[in-house]
Amino acid sequence: MSKTAVDKTLALAGIFQAAALVSSLAVRGRCDGTAKQASIDSLFNFDAEKTVDVFGGLDGIRYGLRQLCEHIGSGAESTVTLRYALTLMKLASTASKTGLLEAIADDLQPLAPQWHNAEADPEAAPPVIHQLSASYAKIISPLQPRVIVNGDPQHLQNDHITTLIRALLLAGIRSAVLWSQSGGNRWYLITSRKRMIFEAEKLLNTAS
Questions:
Q1: How would you class 72 by CB atoms within 10 Å of its CB: exposed for 0-12, middle for 13-18, buried for 19 or more?
Q2: How far is CA 62 from CA 38, 58, 67, in A?
Q3: Where are the domains of the chain?
Q4: Among positive and negative, which fits the CA dihedral 124, 116, 29, 178?
Q5: Does domain 5-207 correspond to CATH entry 1.10.3890.10?
Q6: What's the pLDDT at 114?
Q7: Residue pLDDT tens, the chain, 208 long
Q8: How far apart are CA 171 and CA 193, in angstroms?
Q9: CA distances from 89 to 34, 171, 205 (A)
Q10: What pLDDT was estimated at residue 80?
Q11: Rounded CA gap, 46 and 50, in Å?
Q12: Which residues contact 202 (CB under 8 A, 6 or more apart)?
């Protein structure tokens, strides 16, 4: 993967996309379907040559680019989505340092064929989501800091929603790893917000 400003922006948008989808599910019980599909797909795009290909093209990351602009461009420092995104970055760093990314990869590899066949066989998708959720619970949940998801108790007590939330958090970890691989770090996030907003808006104009 290359390490341009565009690559960093796309990877960061992937983190914000997953974080915003989790927030939407927790609060409203639903989320953007196209973005959800692209985020889950990103877990199985092992050999993408370009950062944008991880999300299946610009359309797959459009939602995340909008979220990025909203949450780092507004000056807001404590939004729920931003909190989730920063926590996912920390967790990805911890997982990388402790060798747990290999364990995640071991879980993902056998699921890839089943997920890729889900378009032809929709019944194949739920078991994969369940396994992704289980992988997150097994490997990431024990780490600190934990992602504390806030929302409507009615939705947070729904097994289907909480399973999907954990799968999307795992997708957020994947994007956070991509962010690190592209040269992104907390200092870059602090000092280069205007540059990333500029790149995100330019990408959104290309994607529209």
A1: buried
A2: 10, 6, 9
A3: 5-207
A4: positive
A5: yes
A6: 87
A7: 678 999 999 999 999 999 999 999 999 999 999 999 999 999 999 888 899 999 999 999 999 999 999 988 765 555 899 999 999 999 999 999 999 999 999 999 999 988 887 765 666 688 999 999 999 999 999 999 999 999 999 999 999 999 999 999 999 999 999 999 999 998 998 899 999 999 999 999 985 5
A8: 23
A9: 23, 12, 27
A10: 92
A11: 11
A12: none
Query: Residue with structure tokens 């990388």?
Result: 96
Token pair, residue 195, equals 């540059």
Buried b (16+ CB within 10 A) or exposed e, 41-56: bbbbeeeeeebbebbb
Place of tokens 């370009």: 50
Which are the contacts of 32, defined by CB distance < 8 A and separation ≥ 6? 21, 24, 63
Query: Per this entry, what is the length of the chain?
Result: 208
Tokens of 15: 């983190």
